[in-house]
């Protein structure tokens, strides 16, 4: 556990990755990533290059948000989102809870028969890392296209029951991992907030001792070009 007053992670316990959105065309003629939803994390896009959009689906309806350099767009848990690449779209992604959205807090919008249990879901979404890049791409494209089937059905469904059913299935799929997620939150966002609280307490008492504990850190990505849900990722260590 990270002690209060000594949190040295990225501000607020967030994480970042650099994303080059897939330019693979789908059956609807749109190029882009895999639609999915996060259950406990907000996510933000800082657009650094190119042009595109993010399609979103919530209980409030379907929306399209244009993305151009300089745009900062963000959404809360429960937002189904699909990135669209219109011209070399590149994004820096900010994620809550030390990168949990890329470490488990995501459920793809697969058709219902693939959401019945963890094993079935994993078999449909896993990308093997011990095969050549070309084979990894084949798996990534296949799961993207499968998720688009479920996504189209959710968009076309009348009423909110189909979306509510997807929410229930997603919650059931992630339940076995919640203890692991809670620990990541405790060591990240909770620890960061507690550290600020302790520093405020010290300053109120005239104690500036924590300022002598300042540190500077810098890192390069630990992995380049990983096949992610929305595109190729340059990722940093979560800690």
Task: Give an overview of the whole structure.
With 239 residues, the protein is of the alpha+beta class. The chain has helices at 118-125, 133-156, 161-174, 178-204, and strands spanning 15-21, 36-37, 43-58, 61-67, 72-75, 80-95, 107-108, 223-227, 231-235.
What characteristics describe this protein?
239 residues, two-stranded antiparallel sheet, 4 helices, 9 strands, globular
Structural topology:
Blueprint: E1 15-21, E2 36-37, E3 43-58, E4 61-67, E5 72-75, E6 80-95, E7 107-108, H1 118-125, H2 133-156, H3 161-174, H4 178-204, E8 223-227, E9 231-235
Antiparallel strand pairs: 1-6, 1-9, 2-7, 3-4, 3-5, 3-6, 8-9
Q: Would you list the SSEs in sequence order as H and E? A: EEEEEEEHHHHEE
Q: Calculate the terminal CA-CA distance, rounded to whole Å.
A: 12 Å
Number of helices: 4
Radius of gyration: 19 Å
Class derived from helix and strand content: alpha+beta
The whole-number mean of residue pLDDT values reads 95
* Fraction of helical residues: 25-40%
Low confidence ranges: none
Main beta sheet: strand number and arrangement?
A: 7 strands, antiparallel
Task: Tell me the number of strands.
Answer: 9
Q: How would the global form be characterised?
A: globular
How much of the polypeptide forms β-strand, as a percent range? 25-35%
In short, what is this structure?
By secondary structure, this protein is α+β, with helices and mostly antiparallel strands.
């Amino acid at each position: 556990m990270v002690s209060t007053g000594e949190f040295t992670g990225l501000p607020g316990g967030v994480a970042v990755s650099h994303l080059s959105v897939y330019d693979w065309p789908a059956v609807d003629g749109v190029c882009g990533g895999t639609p999915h939803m996060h259950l406990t994390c907000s996510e933000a896009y800082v657009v650094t290059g190119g042009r595109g959009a993010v399609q979103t689906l919530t209980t409030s309806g379907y929306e399209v948000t244009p993305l151009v350099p300089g745009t900062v767009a963000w959404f809360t848990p429960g937002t189904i989102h699909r990135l669209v690449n219109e011209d070399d779209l590149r994004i820096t992604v900010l994620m809550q809870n030390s990168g949990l959205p890329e470490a488990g807090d995501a459920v793809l919008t697969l058709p219902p028969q693939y959401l019945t249990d963890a094993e079935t879901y994993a078999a449909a979404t896993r990308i093997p890392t011990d095969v050549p890049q070309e084979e990894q791409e084949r798996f990534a494209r296949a799961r993207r296209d499968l998720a688009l089937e479920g996504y189209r059905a959710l968009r076309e469904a009348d009423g909110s029951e189909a979306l509510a059913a997807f929410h229930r299935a997603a919650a059931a799929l992630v339940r076995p991992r919640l203890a692991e997620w809670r620990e990541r939150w405790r060591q990240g966002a909770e620890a960061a907030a507690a550290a600020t609280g302790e520093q405020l307490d010290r300053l109120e008492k005239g104690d500036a001792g924590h300022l002598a504990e300042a540190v500077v850190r810098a890192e390069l990505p630990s992995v380049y070009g990983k096949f992610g849900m929305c595109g190729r990722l340059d990722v940093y260590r979560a800690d």
